[in-house]
Amino acid sequence: MSSILVLNGPNLNLLGQRQPEVYGTTTLADVQAACEAHGKNIGYDVAFSQTNFEGGLVEAIHAARGTHDGIVINAGAYTHTSIAIMDAVFSTQVPTVEVHLSNIHAREDFRHTSYLARAAIGQIAGFGLTSYLLGMDALKAHLA
Ligand code: DQA
Questions:
Q1: CATH number for the domain including 29?
Q2: Which residue range(s) make up the domain with 48?
Q3: Does pLDDT of 27 surpass 80?
Q4: For residue 1, what pLDDT is reported?
Q5: Half-sphere exposure (CA, 13 Å, Cβ side) for 74?
Q6: Which residue's CA lies nearest to atom 6 of ligand 1?
Q7: Looking at the DSSP assignment, which residues form a beta bridge with residue 110?
C-alpha cells in the first residue's frame, strides 16, 4: 500500500484547548483519527506525527524520502518563518501539500507569507480538519 506522512508543527499538540475561537475544539487526536480513516478510504497508509521543533520537521521531511509517497504538512507558525523547512522540501523533492486549519490569508499580515508554499505542490487553508483530508486527496491526485 502507498503511504502518506501527515506532519504537524508547533503548538498543534494543544489543538482543542488552543484559541478555540480560531481553531475550534477538534483535538490533534481527532485529526489523526480522521486522516487514518480517510487514508483507508483512498488506499493510503498514514503515518502521523507532531513536533514543536523546526529541526524535527526538517529531519522528518528528510526521513520521508524513500519511505512515504508524499507529505501533508501543517507547519504551524514555521510556515511563515522557516527557510529551512522550505529547503528540506526542495532538497528531498518529496511531493508535499501545505495545509492549515484556519484561513491564513484572512488573518494577520504576517500569516499571509508562506515560505513553504514556494516548495509545496499547493496550499489548502481554512477548512479546519477537512483541510487535511482535502490535502490528502490533492496529494493522491498529484501522485496518480
Ligand atoms: C496554522 C496557522 C498558522 O499561522 C499558526 O501559526 C498555526 C496554525 C493553521 O493551521 O491554521 O500554528 O498553521
A1: 3.40.50.9100
A2: 2-143
A3: yes
A4: 62
A5: 35
A6: 77
A7: none
CA of residue 69 to ligand 1 center, whole Å: 24
Separation between Cα atoms, residue 33 and residue 78, nearest integer Å: 24
Could you give the residue numbers annotated as active site? 23, 100
The C-alpha cell that represents 140 in the structure block: 493522491
Q: In this structure, which residue's CA is closest to atom 8 in ligand 1?
A: 76
Residue found under cell 500500500: 1
- pLDDT one-digit tens code per residue, 75-129: 999 999 999 999 999 999 999 999 999 999 999 999 999 999 999 999 999 999 9
pTM score above 0.90: yes
Nearest CA, atom 2, ligand 1: 76
Q: Are the CB atoms for 58 and 90 separated by under 8 Å? A: no
Domain count along the chain: 1
Please give the pLDDT value at position 10: 98
Provide the terminal-to-terminal Cα distance of the chain, rounded to the nearest Å. 14
Tracing cell 487514508 back to the chain, one arrives at 39
Enumerate residues lining ligand 1, CB below 6 A: 11, 74, 76-77, 79, 100-102, 104, 111
Which residue is it, cell 524513500? 66
Q: What is the four-CA torsion angle of 49, 52, 58, 63, rounded to 10 degrees?
A: -30
